[in-house]
Amino acid sequence: MITAADLILVFQQALDEEWGYIYGKTHEMWSAEKQKEYVKDYRDDPDRTASVLYGGKWAKHWVTDCSGLFRHAFSRYGLYIAHGSNTIWDKYCTNQGNLRKGKRIDGKELLPGTAVFTTASDGRHNHIGLYVGNGTVIEAQGCKAGVTTSRITDPRWSVWGELRGVSYKQKEGTGMTAKVVLPTGATGNTVNMRERPSRDSGIILRVPVGATVEVLIDQGQWIQIEYGGKAGYMMADYLEYGQGGESGTEMISVPRGELEKIYDKLGDWLGLRG
Prior knowledge:
CATH superfamily of the largest domain: endopeptidase domain like (from Nostoc punctiforme)
Shape: globular
Strand order of the largest sheet: 6-5-11-7-8-9-10
Number of helices: 6
Number of domains: 2
Number of strands: 20
Distance between the termini: 24 Å
Order of helices and strands: EHEEHHEHHEEEEEEEEEEEEEEEEH
Helix content: 10-25%
CATH architecture of the largest domain: Alpha-Beta Complex
Largest sheet: 7 strands, antiparallel
């Protein structure tokens, strides 16, 4: 079992590294030589026409196709999922439903880490993407665009499916809180909370220094937090962890790096390491 955050991290990495798209691939470094062989083998295959025509642009990039990115992400954690979006819809979704204007028609929240699909005229689901929160889908869109983002409100996304082997409970929070702080040398009165774990991502809110936020998921360099009714990402250097206590008790704040050192030292003392 993996968390939705685990899945999102792999998709985010593919986006940040500007992966390309080649039909039939899951995770392969592309080259001009491989493109020549691909053209030779598949020049008459209608499903691969775009990859034959445009695949050369992805030389020196990792390549995948839409469901191949899911298969790669699952394999990173030792899990298996089929290569094929329609098969994923048929056999690997534990919960499914329809979308209307980017929202589940049953009125429940569309959780980050949920797969979203297109629906063809024959009823098959021939394309898949991953909803990562804040209205954004990461998808291996096609050979021209590669791995890119789209909006969940795009009418292409017609149905959703929660995936077997993925836990979606992280939205309930961890019970941990943190205080927004400025690291040594930083200035200002606010810290940016971003849509995705990247400095280039859009800003959702500017959170006041000293504010207390809820910690949703610790991803290492970036922490997913909730503040003001919105969820987003903040760099770990700008947060001090503290565990909320009962009314009238004081919250103890510990810089995140120091907290990790404490855990490591405790493991050494208890003989839990190595």
